[in-house]
Amino acid sequence: MSHDLRDLPPKRHIARLALCVTAAAFASVAVALPASAAIASPARSPVTSVRADDPNSVPGSGACKSGYVYRDSFEGDGVCVTPEERDKAHAQNPNRQPGSNECQSGYVYRDSFEGDGVCVTPKERDKAHAQNPNRQPGSNECQSGYVYRDSFEGDGVCVTPKERDMWNKFNPNRQPGSNDCKSGYVYRNAWEGDGACVTPGERERWEDWSRDGV
């Protein structure tokens, strides 16, 4: 697999918070891709598409089933949830303009990963960016000799090719060079942003664990 940064996909979609110790190895490193230095935040399109495996979406239509809405908790978040769940997600980003993905005056996108639309102060954004020193200043590209770690969906931390390969061994059932799972495997979804590829049966067991708390 080439290490040329031009061969890497320009977009990374969503990294999210971990809920258990297993997640820590992945989620603790979901950091720092850049934002504009200006205080005002540029407009972002609210939703790009729904997830293909979302049970609350209408198959093949890109729309949510009746009674469900786009969660819209970050740029491109097309997961279909109830209005109550959407409002709860929005409450976690109180500094954005109601009804849009734009930040209120004085706040900027954190941009700690591609699609990170959480609105924070410029100081908080700069602190997040300092955790990824190997990227090109003012861009989402890595410096020469570094590549995206890609240990989970949205992981834009810039590391050496050797470090990336080591992290990718934690998820052997995904398609090489992408965030898609191999045929017969699905995202585990044990927590928001969990892109580990497992069998459908394994995912169901994780869902049971999350639901029952055991």
Which key terms come to mind for this protein?
flat, 214 residues, two-stranded antiparallel ribbon, 5 helices
Task: Kindly describe this structure.
There is one protein chain. With 214 residues, this protein is α+β, with helices and mostly antiparallel strands. 21% of the residues lie in helices and 9% in strands. It has five helices and ten strands, in the order H-E-E-E-E-H-E-E-H-E-E-H-E-E-H. It has helices at 21-27, 83-91, 122-129, 161-168, 200-212; strands at 57-58, 63-64, 69-70, 80-81, 108-109, 119-120, 147-148, 158-159, 186-187, 197-198. The strands form five sheets. The chain has a two-stranded antiparallel ribbon with strand order 1-2. A two-stranded antiparallel sheet has the order 3-4. The chain is flat and about 45 Å long.
Poorly predicted residue ranges: 1-49
* Shape by Cα distribution: flat
What separation lies between the terminal Cα atoms? 40 Å
**How large is the radius of gyration?**
17 Å
Count of helical stretches: 5
- Helical coverage, percent range: 10-25%
